[in-house]
Amino acid sequence: MKTTTRIAAAILGAVTIGTGSAAVAQAREAVLATGSSTVAPFTRTVAETLAASGAGKVEVRSVGTVYGFDQFCQGSDLRHPDVQNASRRMNALEFQKCLSRGVNEIMEIPIGHDGIVVAHRKDLPSPNFTLAQLWLGIAKEIPQGGRLVPNPHTSWRQVAAGLPDWPIAVIGPPPTSGTRDSFTDLVLSAGCQAVPEVRAIDDAAQRRRLCTTVREDGRWTDGGEDDGLIVRRVTEGAPGTLGIFGYGVLEIHRDRIEGARIEGVDDTPETIASGAYPVARPLFVYVKRANAEAVPALRAFLAEYVSDRAMGPGGYLVRRGLVPLDPARLRRVQEAVRNQEIMLRGPGT
User: What whole-number distance in Å separates Cα of residue 103 and Cα of residue 98?
Assistant: First the structure.
């Protein structure tokens, strides 16, 4: 069974250095957070707690991880966000873009784990998908009879005899979403590589295109950044309609939806935290350290976010659906936030 790669260390390439003189000249009362729709509910919960205590205000915009990084890396002045919610790790190109725009003191804060779920209406029997079966149902083209053909499957039963006779109708995250990036890597690419005819293709670019391009015949629909809307479309659509989103969304709506097993593994906090669930991933918050000098509420926001009452066992974010870090990892993250540690090198370098 394929499992996700191990989550990176708490703060890769981080060191403790002083606040320096990078403060911007302007001031802003509210912290501005952008990015992932998966992480946004957790950030909003922290923002509500902060506001209720009178410690500061936080404005949270849910635009997707990809577009969020674009906004976050536009510049270091206060026209741009202080915080980037991310449902995957910042990549090397995004890190370099930030540096090129003067955003060079970035705190990388792992906040917990998440699993991408393949959800269906609760009153239906829950299927067990392999990664290869998901790819064969969702891909635009698949190998058949020794050649590539437009995906002919209209039901999951046509993909594999043991799957339910549901019409293939999948509502997934859009290309601006970090969840889409993770789904592409952890499900589509992994499932595609399990198909012998794909592995036999020598051209790496052709193989990548084949593995990652989803159907355009109406069987796959980009659902936008509103996960609640995807849930409604799953529950109100044709029986067997599937929705792709983070585990936190499933937790909120468990009275209406259920997640399918993937490679025989249920989506539970334990399997997601251990990496046994094949579509598990880390969640992050990125912060411009220098902005704490001009946005006083930013320090209080970060302290609240990584506190035991929020991220610890039984904390309010865990009750909200966040799969928590283990206690030792949480202590390292809390220390890194107290010391305002920053990334010194890009991911993978």
Answer: 5
